[in-house]
Amino acid sequence: MTPKADVVVIGGGIVGAACAYYLCAAGLDVHLVERYFPASGTSRACDGLILLWDKSGTALRLGQASAALWAELAQTLDHEFEYARTGGILLIENEDGMPAGRASVETMDAAGIRASVLDGTDLRRLEPNLAPDLAGGAFFPDDAQVDPRRATLALLSAAQARGLTLHTHARVIAIQRKGNGQAGVSKVVTQSGEIATERIVCAAGAWSNQVARLVGIETPIRPRKGHILVTAKTPGLIHHPLLEGAYATTVQSASEDLQVALVAEMTAGGTLLLGSSRQFVGFGRSASAEVMRAIATRAVRFLPSLARVGVIRSYAGLRPWSPDHLPLIGPVEAAPGFYLAAGHEGAGICLAPISGRLITDWIMGAELPPFIGEIRPDRFNLVPGAQSDLASGKDIARGES
Predict the structure, then answer these.
(1) Domain extents for the chain?
(2) 188, 157, 124, 128: which is closest to 339 by C-alpha?
(3) Which residues contact 251 (CB under 8 A, 6 or more apart)?
(4) What is the pLDDT of residue 299?
(5) In a designed cystine with 341, which of 69, 142, 203, 289 is the match (CB 3.0 to 4.6 A)?
(6) What CATH number was assigned to the domain covering residues 85-143+222-321?
């Protein structure tokens, strides 16, 4: 018999896991389908930073709500996912950048978020191994970090304890609509079977547009590639996540060219994660030696002792980019019963819990925040799309066409 679900979530990354968790917590019968295994995509190829200083407006409101949910999840989930409120430091290379740093602090202050300006002496007191000629920075003591893979698994485990049915190695090949002139979806078809449902949540990250095409719509979500370098163990080299001032600029840019800005994050195991890069190169995920060199060069500029530290591995992931740098969260009017929770780009880790909570509120008919219109998918003109390559058997995840 074909199983029936209240909701089917497509995508086993951190956003899909958060959607499944909150939907199950609301008492719904939820099935989650993942083409490979949980956290097999971008959620295992990224840093785990929960940042607020790089956000403003609606993104900041989402970030504040999600940061509070992360703190709550750290207390309630059964499995450890290395949540730590370490604080974060914005690095300013020269005096020309100090006004922007002060403006970031003022924005956080106005939102009730703790922040302080650092001069060069303050900066080196917090991080003695930084280059001595840096002008200063800003400190945000409430920034946090998680292990994204562990967090994804912790959310899924908690959802399974609340009734989630998890389907792995189940690539979606079709979404059926209701017949007899009725609007809405009726069934998700995977490689391994069918699931009857009238509600589908697409949380497929960079591949969400391919899934959306199965219900006849085209979204503006594009894959934006990013690299991570992992160093040999360097315990104590840094004490807080570090990001240079140009990071926010690269996030907001829509340039097709390669962009690199320092991000450095210490893991619980003592290795250092180094990024970040941004480029539009399609769905290919192979690591580029040129990009790795650019990241390493930028890292050594800020942390000179890294010149003597080896890189033990590198990898690349695909961020789901949206044109206005806000996620697409909510129902799609052109496809009744189909919801999107995608387009987070580099903020997917930070915004996963609030995304799951908002999707659940939509489906349960709960009260929604006043800014919900700014993240609704229908703020874009979602036009009919061609049949997805997913349905034709081509594997976009591997870069095949």
Answers:
(1) 7-48+149-221+324-398, 85-143+222-321
(2) 188
(3) 54, 278, 325, 345, 346
(4) 98
(5) 203
(6) 3.30.9.10
Integer Cα distance of 56 and 111 in angstroms: 9
pLDDT for 39: 97
pTM of the entire predicted model: 0.94
**What average pLDDT does range 306-320 have in this prediction?**
96
Q: How do the residues of the chain divide into helix, strand and coil, expressed in percent and rounded to 5?
A: 35, 25, 40
Structure tokens at 49: 């930073």
pLDDT of 124 higher than 90: yes
Answer yes or no: are the C-beta atoms of 77 and 156 closer than 8 Å: no
Which of the following CATH numbers is that of domain 7-48+149-221+324-398: 3.50.50.60, 3.10.350.10, 3.30.70.890, 3.30.830.10?
3.50.50.60
> Region 169-180: what's the mean pLDDT?
94
Give the span between the Cα atoms of 204 and 282, in whole angstroms: 16
Is the predicted pLDDT of residue 394 greater than 90, yes or no?
Answer: no
